[in-house]
Specification:
Radius of gyration: 17 Å
Distance between the termini: 40 Å
Number of domains: 1
CATH class: Alpha Beta
CATH superfamily: Aldolase class I
Largest sheet: 8 strands, parallel, barrel
């Protein structure tokens, strides 16, 4: 297959990335939802109206709710996933969807989680290697959730570990790497330097008070990141679209 130009421009706007993530249903379980946002239609509506550059979901949501988002927001299809039941010491996220499924669903990018330092690291590297080649052959961008995790990782959110994870994503061929915020502007600058030409976005993390979260977004951007992948701090908010606009002012402003 002749390699196509990667559709990175579909999920990047003016050099910035702002992805709405809703893979928490698999990763964390229903505990992250209430009676309103447990309905995928509710979150799809936020993704479409919020002006996000991407919408990260698993294939079940992508297939069954396609009419709710297709053509309105770029799709980032997660190709692997795990539950929160399996112990972190043995962290592994197996493939659950294919690049062909992503193409058939009209995805502009694929998302893939790699746990750097896990006992299953070699297996995840091998699986992503094949996925990266195929995704880029189809012209899909590769967004890697790169998290240090497992029994060999003493502190998965230390600046050293986060920078290592960002570098691994660059070396493996990711176009965008999603990392956990390393705790300070200076630490974020080192993470961004470690990632080279791979664009760095930060996870939003668990729900935080609004002012505290927006300050974190400011620090993330001041550290040189190109944006965020945010979920709970938007769709758990009482006014998700207002919160989205506050985040956009920082990311795109």
């Amino acid at each position: 297959m002749k390699r196509k130009e990667t559709h990175l421009g579909k999920i990047v706007r003016n050099g910035r990335v702002l992805i709405l993530a809703m893979d928490q249903g698999m990763e964390h379980g229903p505990k992250d939802f209430n009676q309103k946002n447990i309905n995928p239609e509710y979150v799809c509506d936020i993704a479409c109206k919020g002006g996000f550059t991407g919408f990260a979901i698993q294939k079940g949501i992508a297939k069954l709710y396609k009419e709710n988002y297709s053509g309105k927001v770029p799709l980032v299809l997660k190709l692997n996933g795990r539950t929160n039941i399996v112990p972190k010491d043995e962290a592994y996220s197996p493939p659950v969807a294919s690049v062909k499924e992503a193409v058939d669903l009209g995805a502009d990018a694929i998302g893939y989680t790699i746990y750097v330092g896990s006992p299953m690291e070699a297996q995840m590297f091998k699986e992503f290697g094949a996925i990266e080649r195929e995704a880029h052959d189809y012209g899909l961008a590769c967004v890697v959730w790169s998290y240090p995790r497992g029994k060999y990782v003493p502190d998965e959110k230390s600046p050293e570990m986060v920078a290592y994870a960002a570098r691994v994503a660059l070396e493996l061929g990711a176009d965008v790497v999603k990392i956990n915020y390393p705790g300070s502007i200076d630490a974020m600058k080192w993470v961004v330097a470690s990632a080279g030409r791979c664009k760095v976005i930060s996870a939003g993390g668990s729900k935080q008070p609004e002012a505290e979260f927006l300050q974190k977004v400011k620090d993330i951007m001041a550290g040189g990141a190109c944006g965020l992948a945010v979920g709970r701090n938007v769709w758990q908010h009482d006014d998700p679209l207002r919160m989205t606009n506050e985040i956009k002012k920082i990311v795109f402003g």
